[in-house]
Amino acid sequence: MKKVPMILSLILSILLLVPATKAATSEIKWTNPDDYRDIYPGEEHRKHFRERTFKALEKHFSILAKQLPQGQMLKVEVTDIDLAGDVHHGGIRQIRLVKEIYFPKMKFSYQVVDVKNNELSAGQVDLKDMSFMMGSNLKYRNDSLGYEKKMLDNWFKKAFLK
């Protein structure tokens, strides 16, 4: 009978001695978003579209950062976005038309730091995916910003998962 509390006490003591590890995280900064090349909504309210777009991209950067070793942080400062497609005005309607000639682009700088904020890697990134509509990668086919997410996946894989 006394063995169970003693074992639980031993396990608890060991857990308290093991340092807590922090999962990799991300931090995104949007620099001068009013100057971004193309973040136009079409029919949606511009402010709501931009907030939704930023939130989706922040979430995606967070998902990517979780692939980094524990305790590291991916810091990103976005300086320009040009979403796949282009908004065309047709009478009273504004729609985003996606064609091969309107490929997604994104400019940002990044920094990966450890728990003590020591820089592990950094760089300037000027992404563009001119073949975004080619291939059979259907991972994000039903997602908003699927082309942009695929482009970021490809960058992250080349930069960190060699």
Descriptive terms for the model:
single chain, 162 residues, alpha+beta, 4-stranded mixed sheet, two-stranded antiparallel sheet, globular
Care to describe what's here?
It is a single chain. The chain has 162 residues and is of the alpha+beta class. It has one domain. The protein is built from 3 helices and 6 strands. The chain has helices at residues 3-17, 46-65, 146-160, and strands at 25-30, 73-82, 86-90, 93-97, 105-113, 119-128. A 4-stranded mixed β-sheet has the order 1-2-5-6, covered by helices on one side. Helix 2 runs parallel beside helix 3 (146-160). The longest helix is centred in the middle third of the chain and has 20 residues, at 46-65.
| Beta content | 25-35%
In helices, the fraction of residues equals 25-40%
* Low-pLDDT windows of residues: 14-21
- Summarize the helix and strand pattern as letters: HEHEEEEEH
Overall tally of structural domains: 1
Shape: globular
Whole-number radius of gyration? Answer: 21 Å
First-to-last CA distance: 53 Å
> Tally of extended strands?
6
What integer is the average pLDDT? 83
- Structural class designation: alpha+beta
Q: How many strands, what sense, and barrel or not for the largest sheet?
A: 4 strands, mixed
The largest beta-sheet arranges its strands as 1-2-5-6
How would you briefly describe this protein structure?
The protein has helices spanning 3-17, 46-65, 146-160; strands at residues 25-30, 73-82, 86-90, 93-97, 105-113, 119-128.
Break the fold down into its secondary structure elements and pairings:
Elements: H1 3-17, E1 25-30, H2 46-65, E2 73-82, E3 86-90, E4 93-97, E5 105-113, E6 119-128, H3 146-160
Parallel strand pairs: 1-2
Antiparallel strand pairs: 2-5, 3-4, 5-6
